[in-house]
Amino acid sequence: MHIDGVRVVLHGSNAGKGSAVRTGARFAQGRWIVVQDADLEYDPEDIPRLLEPLLSGTADVVYGSRFLGSSRWARPWQRLANVGLSRLTSLLYGGSISDMETCYKLIPRDLFMTLDLVAERFDFEPEVTAKLLRSGARVAEVPISYTARTRADGKKIGWRDGVDAVRALWRLRSWSPPAHVAATELISPRQQTT
After folding, report:
1. Closest by alpha carbon to 64, among 74, 75, 54?
2. What is the number of structural domains in the chain?
3. Beta strands 61-65 and 6-7: pairing type?
């Protein structure tokens, strides 16, 4: 289905966030992939800011961090859980990620397609982050705005998803990029020309 130059691809039934992102990536034709959840907790006007580190060649991937920008959390425990998961990610995979669970991850499409993603639900977030860090991608973070929804508003993520995220982070410690992926595929096109 096409709407005003946008191609809409639908699953027959809800298959989860990870499945939706992987399907969208298969149909994507642009140079970069960024996830935009339909609930608009994230402001699409922040997306151009995500491009700056990629265009300047200072990063291979850019995360929009809710902890560096202005955020309104629905519940303090959600903020605390995100801080804990981000610290665990940094501990297990190196680097310093302040917001592993952020929706806004801007990734070059070519790099995204090398990650062999399999997560079907919200464990997409730790899976893509773990695989990006294990691949050696340079991840930059920029501040974004965020206004959380509540369960009454339709928020679906819960404590079980946090447990799944910890399991995914632990399980993926041994993941390596596929042997057939050339090292140059793991670097941004701007880096390759310098």
Report:
1. 54
2. 1
3. unpaired
* Max Cα–Cα distance, the chain, nearest Å: 51
109 three-state secondary structure: helix
CATH of the domain at 18: 3.90.550
- Eight-state DSSP code of residue 143: E
Closest CA to 66 of 54, 51, 78: 78
Q: What is the DSSP letter of 7?
A: E
Closest C-alpha to 30, from 46, 64, 6:
6
DSSP state of 94: -
Q: What is the pLDDT of residues 67-101, one digit of tens each?
A: 998 887 767 878 889 899 999 999 999 878 999 99
Q: Which of 34, 18, 53 lies closest to 143, judged by CA?
A: 53
